[in-house]
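ARCHIVE CARD
Drawer: 12
Card no.: 0347
Subject: one protein chain, sequence and derived structure
Cross-reference: see card 0346
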Amino acid sequence: MRFNKVLIIDDEPELGNLIKRLLELEGFLIFTAGNASEGLEILKNNEVDIIISDVRLPDKNGLDLIPLIKKQYPSIEIVILTAYGKIEDGVKAIKDGAFDYIVKGDEDNKLLLVIKNAQEKIRMSNRISHLEKNVLSKYTFANITSNSPLIIDAISVAKRAANSTSPILLIGETGTGKEVFAQSIHYESDRKNEPFVAINCSSFAKDLLESEMFGYKAGAFTGAIKNKKGLFEEADKGTLFLDEIGDMDISLQSKLLRVAENNTFIKSGDTKETTVDVRIIAATNKDLKRLIDEGKFRNDLFFRISVIQINLPPLRKRIEDIPVLTEIFIKIFCTKLKKSIPQIDESLFKRLSKYPFPGNTRELKNVIERIILLNDKPLLTEADLPKDFFDNDNNVGFIKGMSLQELEKKHILSVLESTNYNKAETAEILGIGLTTLYRKLNEYGFSDE
């Protein structure tokens, strides 16, 4: 375990030694300096976590040290020692960036409390920094594994677009990795340290979606008892990911167009504009141009959000990725379930490559999770796959002649049957909103009755 290192800058040897002995008993490693110049020299050659500095130093005012040190060493916490009756020095110190101040003559317990609070802040800052690094390393294009020229080209376009402020439209079927791409774009952009906020537009009715996106003022409608901040405000300075934008009600699209063009909107119940700085990434599995022709999507909004279009191919058009993705998912779920990683028979890869995967990469991931969960065998073969993969043998010609909509219907009803008609579980497996599932079932004429 690493000890916290404290630098004491004080020209009164008696007081400095008293503080030094007190902190050494608590396990701190101590450096001492009699003036500001000595203290700055120690900082150049040693790693220091906390500085305790007197205000009155022979060669410099301790208060002047604060901005100087915080500029060069922003992670160091500074505690100022001030004389009794000079509380204004302590207040100024905090305003300039010091962690806290201590009045000379205070009890030792107060000094220890302040130092340990500074120590805890350092621990929390280090933990947050560690978590941020983990997030940044997780959501990068380097973690998108593919041998497909189509995906490699999509990554190339996304990387070039990452630092622009232009809206991006991701187009692809359900399960093709649109949110993964959106997150990677965000975390490889200049906005990576700002919020990434996502919402599935198909999961909310129009009025609820408007409230979620833009918020409202207290009293805007019955039940609005307090102000609500919308997701555009939550994503300020960062990125807002609007998944399944094709399902957004056309009456709400005009409000989205306004904020996409001017970065301003008026929330329900308010009389003044709210201004935000948000980069919009939208995604859809629908043909927006067809929706425009049908009067269900605004032409001007389409052109605004699709300045940069990135098409993500379905898994059946990148079958060269199936083996490598299968191996990755097997390792993930074996690690998660604390199981030994099995060998993979070539028959498994061949069977997977013949399957059309209507649910794309998400469906492949779910299939592998199920296999690992139900098996402890040292070798996985095609016999470990669900029966759907073998039903395909008798319907190859039929499937090749099916439209995407017919294939989607077959897949949704198959998943619904496998979950014993549990719609919430079906929606989760498919990666769509529950309201979207109900709408599609209604289109298919499916009834619970």
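Annotation on reverse: Confidence is low (pLDDT under 50) at residues 394-399. The chain has three domains: 5-135, 141-313, 316-443.
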